[in-house]
Amino acid sequence: MGDGFRRIDLADHEQGPVLLSVVIPRPHDPWGVAACLRGTPWESLVREVDGEAVSHAVHGYATPLVRSLGPHPHAVARRIRVPCALSDGGQCVGASPACVPGAKMPDCFEPPDLPVEVASVVTTVLLDLRAGRHVVVVSGSEFVLL
């Protein structure tokens, strides 16, 4: 069973490597499992991109997509500066100042004060950002060349 995201590694001769974590849409909702993030501060971690730009990127022309992605994923992760839920009250022996979203966030990071289902999606998004992946929702139709 998947986590609701599709990872795509693109290699463009002009843009270099482009790493994506694409939300798998549900019928009538392109936000799929990430729908629970809408209307929350965590929504800012996910970028909506045009389906045509994603299609062009998958077929070798990533420039339009790269223009729409915004800042590097590490910078996006730093938008929300909340400490790990486990660092409060000594629940984690390894708690440190690095226990916040960003490039040095530990694997065990848990966002505070969220239901388990939402926390799971947030953690997946943060780990993908830490890995240098742009987390995106594709809006609009895509095309496939056979």
What does this structure look like?
The chain is globular. The protein has helices spanning 51-58, 63-69, 73-77, 116-130; strands at 5-12, 16-23, 47-50, 134-139. The protein is 24% helix and 18% strand. Strands 1-2-4-3 form a four-stranded mixed sheet. The protein is α/β, with parallel strands linked by helices.
Condensed summary:
This protein has 146 residues and is an alpha/beta fold.
Low-confidence stretches: none
Mean pLDDT: 90
What is the general shape? globular
Side-by-side strand order of the widest sheet: 1-2-4-3
Strand count: 4
List keywords for this structure.
single chain, 146 residues, alpha/beta, 4-stranded mixed β-sheet, 4 helices, 4 strands, 24% helix, globular
List the helices and strands and how they pair.
Layout: E1 5-12, E2 16-23, E3 47-50, H1 51-58, H2 63-69, H3 73-77, H4 116-130, E4 134-139
